[in-house]
Amino acid sequence: MLTVSEALDRAQLLCDAATKAGADAADALYYCNAATSVSMRLGELEDVERSEGQDISLRVFVGQRSASVSTADMDAGELEKLVARCVAMAREAPEDPYAGLAPEDLLFKGPVPDFDLDDGSEADPQALREAALAVEDAARAVAGVTNSEGGSASHSRTRFALVTSHGFAGGYGASGHSLSASVIAGEGAAMQRDYDWHSAHHLSDLESAEQIGASAGARAVRRLNPGKAPVGKLPVVFDPRIGSSLLGHLLGAIGGPAIARRTSFLLGKEEAQLFDPAILIRDEPHRPRGLRSRAFDGEGLPTAARDIVADGKVTGWLLDTASARQLGLAPTGHASRGGGASGVGASNLHLAPGTVTPEALMADIETGVYLTELIGQGVNPVTGDYSRGASGFVIRGGQLAEPIAEFTVAGNLIDMFGALTPADDLVFRQSVNVPTLRIDGMTVASS
Question: How far lies 6's CA from each of 3, 348, 408, in Å?
Fold first, then answer.
């Protein structure tokens, strides 16, 4: 695996070659990942995987025309052919008045800060095997668990480097650790499956195998013997593990590309009171050890903490350079790149906690549902109409009661945002984190 410095050199050489070959501007993005994972099932070794891959993507501009290519072949001769092919493709591409690199005067400048994303560890297959066995053993030890889909542990290292022809060069590395378990409770047609997992940059931040395994086993057992859900317009409570998906729908709707294409259900609602005034949703790209922390975005612009929603209102769109130009605005440092044209995305996102416990949040619900799993992709990004398959628990008399399955919850995201109330149990565990969330008035129906 290349060092960050070597990765930057590789990207710089490709970028320089593109301008020498006739490109007016170019950027090159290098990404490498090396991962080792071990899976155990029923106490026996099931799989050991070791993978290492690298990819370099080149984007060139000839006037208002652009093209992108990528390769995993780092041979000098092949890279030379790649550059020539990309420039030739750009000359034949249609003109795009919004194409181009990010504004030079807005580029990130100075040394890239250290957000402590790399603990310096190397993969230890024996330690991974022991961790995978421990997490599965903890899950299988839960009374009622009858079978296992396995426990797994993994270690990874990544390198990222971005260079542009107009002066930006930045890169960083990160380590990754993860643990997961998936087990089955019950017998025959009554079997139920569930899982738990955790990921962190530092091994010291990873939850214990015993904690993750016990959680996976308990979740599976709680799902046994599900009944039918109550139906009608009911209060719906989202478990934090799935409540984060609501922020994903919000991000898609405020992304510059969707606004520019006029395919967002929030189009024209820039000043609308979408949420309760107490709702705050914040993006924090500089959080130490954050899973998506970054000093610069996919175009080389600096990132900064931002309230995506404040006082219940969206504070503006998330913009890359192309969508910003199309909308006559400035880019916001939210460009994401995987090769080719950029998109937009947030980093470490969270919805601020409320003031009541989850128990108090549910206390006045005579009949409702508590969601622990969502199924399907029934969300219309243009209208905001929302319909998902679900499973979870009945809420009866303010308390969680029996498990339920095979039902749907439906509404419209604008109405759902307006009715959203958070509990006080926010935990920073993933890249997108929310507390327990309650939304009144959703339609619950049998599947």
Answer: 5, 28, 51
The CATH number of 4-221 is which of 3.30.2290.10, 3.40.50.720, 3.40.109.10, 3.40.50.2000? 3.30.2290.10
- CA–CA distances in Å: residue 242 to residues 8, 395, 435, 437: 38, 17, 10, 10
Place of tokens 């550059």: 83
What is the rounded distance in angstroms from the CA atom of residue 246 to the CA atom of residue 242? 8
Closest C-alpha to 62, from 35, 29, 36, 99: 99
Report the chain's C-alpha Rg in angstroms. Answer: 24
Taken as a whole, the chain contains a residue count of: 447
Q: Taking the CB of residue 51, how many other CB atoms lie within 10 A of it?
A: 10
Torsion of CA 263, 266, 271, 275, to 10 degrees: -160
**CA dist., res. 253 & res. 417, Å (int):** 13
pLDDT tens digits for 208-261?
Answer: 999 999 999 999 999 999 999 999 999 999 999 999 999 999 999 999 999 999
Q: What is the pLDDT of residues 145-199, one digit of tens each?
A: 999 999 999 999 999 999 999 999 999 999 999 999 999 999 998 999 999 999 9
Does this model's pTM top 0.85? My answer is: yes
CB atoms within 10 A of CB 83: 26
What is the distance between the alpha carbons of residues 425 and 436, in angstroms, rounded to a whole number?
Answer: 7
In whole angstroms, give the CA distance from residue 41 to residue 43: 5
Q: Residue ranges of the domains in the chain?
A: 4-221, 226-245+353-446, 251-351
How many angstroms separate the CA atoms of 89 and 66, rounded?
8
The answer to whether the CB of 444 falls within 8 A of the CB of 369 is: yes
